[in-house]
Amino acid sequence: MRSTLIAIALLALPGAAHAQYKNSAFGFDLGGWLIQKPALPEDAEANPDKRPLRLSNGLRLGGETNFKFDDHWWFTGRINVGLLQFAGEDPFDKEAKEALGTLLGIQGSIGMRYIIVTDRIRPYVQVALSYLRLMSFTSQSGQDCGGGEFAYCGEGTFSTNYMPHPNVGGVHFQAGGEFLFARDMALHVFADLQHWIVFNTTDNNSVVLGLGIIFYT
User: Less crowded by CB within 10 Å, the N or C end of the chain?
Assistant: First the structure.
């Protein structure tokens, strides 16, 4: 009886940390996006190019692929699709929300992940660089402001007045954990801290809190 139990235990051990013997992985996740809103500068009404991105929150659907250098170091690449919105708490935000609606954001990133412990519970830290493209698909986003119904919309289109910086760079620090619940599958929990780099105006800080599944291949 004892030998049978030992044999079963030995067979179970490789599965517990089987992921460390895999050379690649891919996963999908869903997260909530919280974004810090920089204050509008004093000359914001007269100078649209100085206006920061006044986004407030959103949802993010992401996919990642990872390649192992060794048991601890992994290269990671991601594509994220986000739905982002303005808060509507002050006149500028209300106008932006009415003019542009919910924004679509496409973000790509590359980075390095360090797995701290290579076992069934795999905590990690990660650094990455990203590029985010913001887009609006409302019928008036590409139209000229025209008749002056919007106080902050002067010369140019609604997009250039309320979203003057649609191209955003990013520096990421991410902390998370991979929790193996099957031989080649793990629950993925993470917090992705982002510093957005926006030229000619104030940068944003944001965080994505996410949950997903990783498959080791």
Answer: N
Instruction: Write the CA distances from 35 to 58, 66, 75, 168, 187, integer angstroms.
Output: 8, 27, 26, 13, 25
Cβ-Cβ contacts under 8 Å for 60 (sequence gap 6 or more): 30, 31, 32, 33, 80, 81, 82, 83, 208, 210
Q: Is the backbone of residue 115 left (phi > 0), alpha (psi -120 to 50) or beta? A: beta
3-class secondary-structure state, position 49? helix
CATH code that applies to domain 23-216: 2.40.160.20
Window from 1-5, 49-53, 174-178 with minimum mean pLDDT: 1-5
Pair of tokens at residue 69? 């250098």
- The pLDDT-based confidence of 4 (bands split at 50, 70, 90) is low
Q: Is residue 139 classed as helix, strand or coil in its secondary structure?
A: coil
Output the six-digit token pair for 180: 């193996």
* Residues present in the chain in total: 217
Q: Rounded distance, CA 9 to CA 130, Å? A: 44
